[in-house]
Amino acid sequence: MSEEEKQRYLIVDSTAIIHHFILESKLKEDEFLVIPEMLVKELKSFESKSILTLIETEGKLIEASPSSESLEKIKEISKKTGDFAALSKVDIQVLALALEFPNSIIYSDDNAIQNVSAFMNIEVISQHFKIKSKREYYWKCGVCGTKFSTKVEACVECGSPVKRYFIRK
Question: How many domains does the chain have?
C-alpha cells in the first residue's frame, strides 16, 4: 500500500470547527484536515480561527480550492437529489474536495451535505445529527398537485405555494 493510500483526509464544513468536534476526534498521524479556502473567510469568531491555527501549527491543515469539474459534478448530483437549493457555496466546495482527495471522510451535521455524500458513497461523520437514509427531494403545489424536481417559489401552473417533500431511497 502506497503512502498516499494510507493517508486519510477529513474534509470539514464550518460546523465541525465552530462546534469543536474536529478537536474532539484527535487527528491521527496519517490524517489531514482539508478545508475549502472559502471557509476560512466564513469563520468569524476568535475561537474558530484559533482552532484552525492550532491544527495548522501541527502541519495537519490543507486549504484547497476544488476544480471546476468537481464543482460542476456536485452541482449536477445535488440537483438530481433536490439538495442544490439547500447547499451553500462552501457546502458545494466541501463535497467537491471529497471527490478530489482519496480516502476522504466528510465531517458535517448538514443534512444536504450528508444526503449528497450518501448518493456518492462518501463516508460522513456527524456529531449531532445523522440522516438515516438517502432522500430524493421534490416540490409539489398544494393546490393543483404539480410536481417540480427543482425548487420553485410558486407553482408555474397556478401560482400557488409549493412545499418540499422527499422520497426515501
Answer: 2
Output the CA angle 13-117-94, nearest 5 degrees: 30
Global confidence as pTM: 0.82
Collect all residues with Cβ–Cβ distance below 8 Å to 134 and sequence separation of at least 6: 81, 115, 118, 119, 168, 169
In a domain, 130, yes or no: no
- Domain that residue 118 falls in: 7-125
pLDDT in tens, the chain (169 residues): 455 557 889 998 887 787 766 665 567 888 888 999 888 887 888 888 888 888 888 888 899 999 999 999 999 999 999 999 899 999 999 999 999 998 899 999 899 999 999 999 999 988 877 888 888 889 999 999 999 988 898 999 999 999 999 888 7
The answer to whether residues 50 and 108 belong to one domain is yes
CB 106 within 8 A of CB 9: no
**11 lies in a domain?**
yes
2 domain residue, yes or no: no
